[in-house]
Amino acid sequence: MLRLPAFRYISPRTLTEATARLAEGGPDTAAIAGGTDLLPHMKRRQRCPTVLVGLRHLPELQGIRGTPDQGLTIGAGCTLAEVTQHPGIREAYPALAWAAGMVATATVRQMGTIGGNLCIETRCTCFDLPLHTRDALGHCFKDGGALCLVAPRSPRCWAIASSDAAPLLIAIGAQVRLVSAAGERAISLRDLYRDDGLRPLALQPGEVLTEILLPPADGRRAAYRKVRRRGTIDFPVLGVAVAARFAPDGTVKDASVVLGAVASAPLVVPEAARLLEGSRLDPETVRAAAVAATRSARPLENTDLAAAWRKHLVRVTVERALREMAHA
Amino acid sequence: MPEFALIGRARPRVDAAGKVTGTTRYADDLALPGQLWCKLVRSPLPHARIVRIDPAPALALEGVAAVLTGGDLQTTYGILPVSQDEQALCADTVRYVGDPVAAVAAVDEATAARAAALIVVEYEPLSAVLSIEDAMQPAAEPIHGGGNVQKAVALEFGDVAQGLREAAYQRDDLFFYDGSTHLAMEEHAVLASFAPDGILTLWSSTQTPHYLHRVLSKVLGMPMSRIRVIATPVGGGFGGKSDVLNHELVAAALARATGHPVKCVLTREEVFYAHRGRHPTVIWIRTGWGRDGRVTALHLRTWLDGGAYGSYGVATTYYTGALAPLTYRIPHYRFEGLRVFTNKPACGPKRGHGTPQPRFALECHLDKVAEDLGFDPVELRRRNLVAPFSPTVNWLRVTSCGLAECIDRVVAASGFAQKHRHLPPGRGVGFAVSGYLSGAGLPVYWNDLPHSEVHLTVDRGGRVCVFSGAIDIGQGSDSILIAVVAEVLGLQPEDIQLVTADTALTPVDLGSYSSRVTFMAGNAAVQAAQRMRALIARAVAPRLGVPPEEVRFADGHVAAAGDGARRLRWQEACTVAEAVHGTLSASGAYTPPKLAGPYKGSGVGPSAAYSFSACVAEVAVDEETGEVQVEKVWLAHDIGRALNPLLVAGQVEGSVYMAVGEALFERQGYRRGVHAGPSMLEYKSPTMYEMPAVETILVESIDPEGPFGAKECGQGPLLPVVPAIANAIYDAVGVRVDEVPATPDKLLRALTRAKGGPARIGPTAAPPAAFGPVTKVRRPEDEDAAAAGI
Question: Does residue B111 fall inside a structural domain?
Fold first, then answer.
């Protein structure tokens, strides 16, 4: 069995105390909520923080508030199981409940939080390996080395964004509240991500994601489809989120198409969305949007299954997601 | 009245309560006072010479008791006498990423791990040989000295050229079956302890305590009489715990060096490197056929990627040829096979041991032949089926054989005839058959001793104790041993206790491999129980007023035949018998008949009995993505007699699960000799979502030599499932699956190509045919002809 390295655990009682501890902690301090992403990384010695600041039980990160008319606010510390099972979410944002229910396994969803899923590490077949195997393969950018083992001539890390919740939440226009000792801000979730496998989150040091702010439901329909090898456990090798609002005549008013697991950040495809707007999601338009999404996706050989297959699956999956949304 | 009280009844496993309540004590649950932890230092290079090892920084760490390096354990070993090519710790050369070079014993696991990381090892890299083709290059770096072809075999039974001349049609095909690992839930663990008198006791999660006993003696330089090996309940083996592995020897050596008990538990990563799994195998098949759909000749070639060490690989190589002709009447047969060394973890025995690869190839090949000749695939097989009680072309003695009934019932249950070629696009059914052995006819080292021995005693309370060297690896051998003894003595399973797999207490059983335990230990247990019954019958017969032959054992009583009123309770009968005979004890043993054919290499394949299976798989293929869902598997298995149908169904379902993994998902893959993903997450074994519904059909052919007529069920049912799935994919989407696993990316490539040319996944070129000169072997029918003076 892999064992955890030694660390000190701090259990702050308030968010203010937590952000203070994180601010004073420096790079060896990490925030932990459910721990389902961080602790395996520590066991594999991919990250070895010496101090962990527990966020999970902070009251400020708990609960799901608001109404679909105003938009719901989800505490970042809510478990994925809570999000999946919440009646208000299932009623007004069913695609979010579905996407959250696609993460990992039922057991992990009882521990893992929605905020944690938005902040999970980017993944790569050359990085997500136990220590001895990484020693043998060579250490990449993400592992303290000086190259990308997937694209050795590239100056950057190409590890992939692997959240299931993020593409869907970006597609429906969610914002996130970020709080630090210095203050707080709300940004569009899309802006939380950077296309950099090494530093994929635009969080300031010591900043904590506390809430996810959903826009009013407003008749918006959405769908999320996850591609992976097995029906459970696996991270996405492709995630497709689509969302749209419709005019009274049934034409698409505004749309968005977001891809997960094809780049280091969730990939928003405005070209695909533009094609859908004004349409009635007829098969030709759906196909054209799917082709546009496929053009912008450039998966590499850095997760399960061949990159060419994953690229092909973008078209198939976007079409399926749009059809599902049309009939939602 | 039913023939038997227990046999044939579905009963839960005797160890079920312990397993489901977490009270079973596996090797990792054991601890001794003063115990140290061992960690191994493993090579990061696939092939290198060891220049220097400096243990000083580790020894300087507080809490470190000892460091061993290759110089401390020089004796080579291996599971087969012909493959003594391993060292507990490499002395000069590392041969795969993960090969151990040093070992630490420290006060706790964390200290041992820290110390292991401090040991300095300097390597001189050698060029790494990573594929069959690389290994066969004349200029390839030798892995064990000499060439990298470890074993080459070429045998011909009859005259294949003549058979092909007689053929109206012939066809050849090339296949590849990728490597996979066992993925037992329990990671290997060992605890070694020396008593003050110098006796070593070693507890290990092993399938083969007897072989471990021998190898410990050799490597440690201690007589077997000073070593006691106890196999703990094994949390899944599937062949992965049937080799002696480095950590077992190292823990014992460290215990000797430190005077403390030493424990070693492998991580999942280390288990992937320990491996001994399915050999990646290229298979080439050519057959000739008469217009009547009868085969005239079979020519089979296999190339096995063996990894860095011999393991069971010489046997595996023979197995790729030995059981292919088991199911059909083949007039002329040539088998050529070779195994190469490569700088990867050693391959070895995995469920089916060398036979799933050629079986996959053969059954897919037969479907193509059937299509070419315009035969229904089931009919083609029926025309060529092996007959019960007949020899095969390569001298296997087939006895009971329910294969024809297996085929009839699986075809009827699945509706194969109605579905084949008639399901809507994207859905298909496939069919295949197979056969497997009920225990290898020979042990891994030459001896004339029984393969299984069982000893029975009775205590004053009448409780029977069964002593057997067999270890339950999840296959249910404990339940079977108890059931057969209880049946013979007229008792209930609750009346029997079991002591297993302890070399100090139990007589020998060769191990839980080759589907041998129910057959061999079962036969030994039946004999021991019959002898116990005879002892008691002799003692109580005068009391009951009948001759001993008329004493009956049933319902916990010993009674006069025909007069149930004249009877003694079992415990009373035992007391009477003990007064007459003294200590009540009886032993039984089983040695399989000597069945080897008249040729070198004939030791692999013979078995006292063969099981047979027939399978239909139904699949749904997503033509846009290449993803396959196996919807249902029907599997009919000739079990001889189902001693416990519930356990048999469990073995069938487990086999189907493993076969689905090999057909569609699993691959022990490497990047530059480094494992591609040694974790439960990255190694894609199916989950419950991928597991099809399974309908198990048990066919009982009542084997004359099996215990109560039983044959094996632990491995055989895996074999036909992989080709049945491949054939079903063809039926669904017209893509020939000549390579497994058939992953969605490969299938989609073939589907996309399908619009243009032949749709197929599979290899395009065979490695060099360097099998050496062919040994001609006369066939059983030649013998008969000679005897008849023809």
Answer: yes
Give the span between the Cα atoms of B468 and B445, in whole angstroms.
20
Last residue of a domain, one of B590, B625, B659: B590
Q: What is the ipTM of this complex?
A: 0.97
Task: Name the helix (H) or strand (E) containing B337.
Answer: strand B333-340
Compute the nearest-CA separation of B155 from chain A (Å): 40
Interchain pair A233, B686: CB under 8 A = no
* CATH number of this structure's domain A59-119+160-326: 3.30.465.10
Distance between CA B777 and CA B322 in Å, rounded?
A: 14
Q: Are residues B352 and B267 in the same domain?
A: no
Q: Are both B406 and B289 inside the same structural domain?
A: yes
By the CB < 8 Å criterion, does A316 face chain B? yes
Measured from the Cβ of residue B545, the count of other Cβ atoms closer than 10 Å reads 10
Would you tell me the crossing angle of helices B209-220 and B246-258 to the nearest 10 degrees?
50
Q: Are residues B506 and B650 in the same domain?
A: no
Angstrom distance (rounded) from CA B418 to CA A157 = 54
Same domain, B115 and B264: yes
Range in A27-41, A166-180, B323-337, B743-757 the model is least confident about: B743-757
Q: How far is A184 from A188, CA to CA, in rounded Å?
A: 14
CB contact under 8 Å between B269 and A312, yes or no, is no
**Nearest CB to A305 within list B45, B687, B745:** B745
Q: Judge contact between B497 and B457, C-beta under 8 A.
A: no
Which of 106-135 (A) contact B at CB < 8 A?
Answer: 125, 128-133, 135
Residues B395 and B480 in one domain: no
Same domain membership, residue B715 and residue B615: yes
CA proximity to B268, closest of B726, B702, B568, B681: B681
The answer to whether the beta carbons of residues A267 and A238 sit under 8 Å apart is no
Full residue range of the structural domain in which residue B91 is found: 31-126+185-236+241-274
Instruction: Compare CB distances from B681 to A2, A137, A233 and report the shortest one's residue.
Output: A233
Q: At A130, phi and psi to the nearest 5?
A: -65, 165
Contact A231 B748 (CB under 8 A): no
Same domain, B604 and B555: no
How many separate domains does chain B show?
3
- Smallest Cα–Cα separation from B73: which of B106, B33, B102? B102
Q: What is the mean pLDDT of chain A?
A: 97
Which residue of A lies nearest to B665 if distances are taken between CA atoms? Answer: A229
Q: Where are the domains of chain A?
A: 59-119+160-326
On whether the CB atoms of residues A180 and A129 are closer than 8 A, the answer is no
Pick B674's closest partner by Cβ from A6, A137, A233: A137
* Residue among A131, A137, A316 minimizing CB distance to B625: A316
The CATH number for B297's domain is 3.30.365.10
* pLDDT above 90 (res B726): yes
Q: pTM for the whole thing?
A: 0.98
In terms of domains, do B610 and B512 share one? no
Cβ separation B187–A1 shorter than 8 A: yes
Whether B146 is in a domain gets the answer: no
Could you tell me the CA-to-CA distances from B341 to B59, B99, B128, B213, B718 in Å, in that order? 35, 14, 11, 27, 27
Q: What is the pLDDT of residue A245?
A: 97
B663 touches chain A (CB under 8 A): no
Q: What is the mean pLDDT of residues B711-718?
A: 98
- The DSSP code sequence of A95-154 is HHHHHHHTSS-HHHHHH-BHHHHHTPPPB-TTTSS-HHHHHHH---GGGT-SS-SSSTT-
User: CB–CB of B268 and A309 under 8 A?
Assistant: no
DSSP secondary structure letters along B246-287: HHHHHHHHHHHHHSS-EEEE--HHHHHHH---PPPEEEEEEE
- Per-residue tokens: B465: 């104790």
A:293-312 residues touching chain B, CB 8 A cutoff: 304-306, 308-309, 312
B437, part of any domain:
yes
Please name the residue of chain B whose CA is at the shortest distance from the CA of residue A315.
B624
